[in-house]
């Protein structure tokens, strides 16, 4: 804090008042646990399955002859999946999966190494999600978290929902963690794979238009590890 001296020409300085300022208040950073997915790290987990046992709300194709191609969050409680017929990739179908109670839909991306970057959605247990809210007045808001992974890689998901639980586009979603940072503009979600370690800090920020007087919920979660597009865990 700067000390300012105000010179008052009509007054005579007759004393000095000393104010003792305490130590700075430390920033409170919430720790968040990684999303736990059975088999993730065994090498046999694939997105191209209709269903993976033990994973609540994972997208699945109603027709057993179709394979999951991609998926996304339609709203806070609904995943929309696109399935493809392997014998003829031009034949596709869309369906919706409702998330179980105490879970929220979160959007992620696969690792582009070995293939293309593919969006996929999961119904994540609310215990593995941190949320902060933007009130009607704030146009820029940030929140730090501590994350911990076991293999040095994290796949994070940030998604913004409005008061009606629908995805809400904002001017920008930003993150910074160590020497890594990034920004996505005009979006409601942001997923990225980053290098990480136990107890690493990540800061999540959203920026809205200055006149956007709306209430928003910003959700953050992360996976311990990453997927590549052929379904093999990295």
Automatic annotation (TrEMBL):
<feature type="signal peptide">
    <location>
        <begin position="1"/>
        <end position="22"/>
    </location>
</feature>
<keyword id="KW-0732">Signal</keyword>
<protein>
    <recommendedName>
        <fullName>Secreted protein</fullName>
    </recommendedName>
</protein>
